[in-house]
Amino acid sequence: MKRPLNARFRGGHVHCLFIHKIAHDLFPAxxxxxxxxxxxxxQPDYTWLKEADSQVLQAKIEDxxxxxxxxxxxxxxxxxxxxxxxxxxxxxxxRFKFNGNRIYLPKVGWVKAVFHRSLEGMPKNITVSKTKxxxxxxxxxxxxxxxxxxxxxxxxxxxxxxxxxAVLSTGEKVEHPQYLRxxxxxxxxxxRRLSRxxxxxxxxxxxxxxxxxxxxxxxxxxxxxxxxxxxRLVTQYGMIRLETLNVNGMLKNRSLAKxxxxxxWGMFGQFCEYKAAWYGSDVQRVGRFFPSSKACHVCGxxxxxxxxxxxxxxxxxxxxxxxxxxxxxxNLLNRPTVGAIGRKSPGRPCKTSEPIGKAQRSPNRExxxxxxxLPLLLAFGSSRDPSGTRGQFRxxxxxxxxxxxxxxxxxxxxA
Length: 415
Description:
10 helices
């Protein structure tokens, strides 16, 4: 739930950025000690930390801990330093209150807010975020009981593309809204005005806000479209088959990168997954190497000569004429997969849904366990080094790779 707030949170965002940097600089098992924030407040240079709520600062340390856990579990890359120009956020786990159109935040007080709907369930925590255009929002996380049962509705295959945003196995085609393309002319004009302003001036800041607001307008249009489409699919169908797309690899194509970024395929998949758990539906992923467009859904013959510009083709085996996208959606529907995202199982499809091909290296067993705190300097005297020479090691597991990164940071800090 998002609600715009006033501008009384600027100091709190700066405090959170500061504590994030301090926590990253202290390499030992820093995150396991809850007294770190208290010790920092007692130092003369950091007394201004007392202006921020203690639980907000502790929450930022927990966020850093979660970032390293995601790194060890191979769900994310190495955490990077955050800039105050990025979208900022703080989290209050306790002591917040609601009264009419006001919210009480510790160390801030009562703040006016715009509630677009009533709260459902028990509020557990709230997150205050600031956008690049200077608007403040608060998201409320609530705990509530949900009785979800299978809806028993038919399955559907969904093929995502650029000509049409989505083509269903039923033959329905969802047009691509292309919100960024529609706003390009206005964005181009605003960015020209911004480039003419003197750096550091108030007029430049005003021009920057206009550009940021236009980008946010495009992002909100895209999110609204994806929310409505994903909601319609999970309520109309009991199972949704989607293809696993290599979006990062597709973005390397300079001719299609802007159109792919404007599509929001990854966001659409995420929306379908979490909404499927609410409405008793399933979302299944098909491997990216499955030739959904090239395979005939009637006889199974694969047309290796099919290229991207070919929108229609005729099967040489059975003579069936295919619409490229409709044929792909039908193949996704008929493709057997294992592991659903929704009411049946909490994870992604298992590896049996991937086509048999080049063997994949299994993840290191040492990286599967739960890691707490920041990584230690494991490089020197590594047991994996057969020579036993101190200072020389091979980064053949994830802990040693992290140690390399920490050593590089440490060398810059001590230079």
